[in-house]
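Could you help me review a protein record that somebody else here produced? This is what I was given.
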Amino acid sequence: MVIYFSGTGNSYCVAKELAKKHNDKVVPLKHAVNDNSKHIIFVFPTYAVDIPPNVVEFIKNFEFKKNQKIMGVSVSGGNNGNCEHSFLKIIEARNLKVSKFKNIVMTDNSFSIMFGSKIKKIEVDLQTVALEFWTMKYNKRKAKYNMLYKLFYKFMFNPLGKKLLKKKVINDKCIGCKRCKKICPVNNIRIINGKAKIGNNCAECFGCIHWCPKQAIKISRTIKRADQYHNKNIKITEFNK
């Protein structure tokens, strides 16, 4: 089984490709229940150079079966920070073992939203990436840890950091198309009186911002079409269902 968490589709595309070798099921995090597969692969984006908090909590509470191989894949814009170290720590704290871990570099989709940085698209041959993953010999001793990254992560997900990332719907622009509701991986968006309403359980994936056809969702800055990105190889109806 391949379990993914994704807002713009990068992690989903990776999960689909990894699943092909053994014809594994590909399941979004919000619907994942252990099915006695021989292996469990978690695929997730890198948030503030570490594992997204909701993914951390999910893995901590996931009911693994005896003798299942546990693997992890982080998807980042270049630096996966403490992801591997954190994944090892979570799994080993449960007296389990990590069989593989790999970081995959794909197009960053956070800096354009937060700072207006120009999106640098990175083309990745996922077939080659999947082959490398399945044939790699894993050495956990190469996992790196950086205290500054840890401090940055704590700041971004404390109340002040969350406030900086708080989403706001521009009602004059919102057309009630439900795209944001469909794409939200944690079911945190409702449509009320024809307008999107964002709840208090945001996972900070920025999916709602990137997929909005009218740039009607913003954080501290107004979003332009040039700031938006989602993986061109998928459709909005395809994942997080």
In short: The first helix runs from residue 10 to 19. The mean pLDDT is 93. DSSP finds nine helices and nine strands in the chain.
